[in-house]
Amino acid sequence: SLGAFLALRGRHKLEVVGQAEVAFGNGQEYHIISKTQTDVAGCKGKTLASDHADDPRFIDKVVFNGQHKLSDFTLVATTRPLQTVKKVAGGEAECALIDDAQFAELGKIEGGAALKSVWKSDKLPPMVVVAFPSAPAAERSAFKTSLAKVCSGEGKAACGEVGIKDLSAAGDADYAAVIKSYGK
After folding, report:
1. Which of 3, 96, 165, 178 is the most exposed place for a label (fewest CB within 10 A)?
2. pLDDT tens digit string along 153-184?
3. Is 99 helix (H, G, I), strand (E, B) or coil?
C-alpha cells in the first residue's frame, strides 16, 4: 500500500520501480461520508469511524494533505471495511473515513444509499511496486522494463485473478508529491 511504502521507504531504502493499477478500489481516493452532515466541518468534533486510522501520519499528511487531522474527530476505530460503513449507516458514528473501494460498495450495503460523501481527497498515485537495495541493479532495471508486459497476453488472466488491471514502470518522481507530504 502507499501508506506502507511511505512508512518503510527511508528505513529500507526502497526504490520505486513501477506502479500497479488495480481493478477496483485501490486507495487512490478517500472520502468522509455521513448520513446527517453536509460537510467535513459538521463532522469535526464528532465520531469518525475508520479502518484506515492505524497510520495517523499517512492520513493527516497525505490523505488529508494537512487540511484536517484525525485528532479533529473522535475516532471510532474499526477493523473491517464493512464494519466502518455500518457504524455510520446504523447511527453508531456520525461520519466515516473510507477509501474508494468502500465508497464504490455503498449502494450494496444496507443503509449505504443514505450515506453521502462530504469530503473527498485529492487523487493519490497508484499502488507502488518497489525494489530493495539488495536487488542487483541489472535485475531491477530488467524487471522495471518488463513490468508493462506482465499483464498482457498469457499474463492477463493471472493479473485479473489477483485484481491487477495493469503494471507499468515508474520512478521516485511519480511519487514525489506524496513522499514530500509524508515527510512534512
Report:
1. 165
2. 888 999 989 889 999 999 999 999 999 999 96
3. strand
pLDDT of residue 40: 96
pLDDT over 80 (residue 58): yes
Q: Pairing between strand 74-77 and 47-50?
A: parallel
**What nine digits make up the cell of 136?**
542487483
The helix (H) or strand (E) run that includes residue 96 is strand 95-99
Residue 140's contacts (CB-CB under 8 Å, 6 or more residues apart) are 15, 17, 131
Specify which residues 168 forms β-bridges with: 19
On the CB side of 77, CA atoms within 13 Å amount to 6
**Mean pLDDT over the full length of the chain:** 93
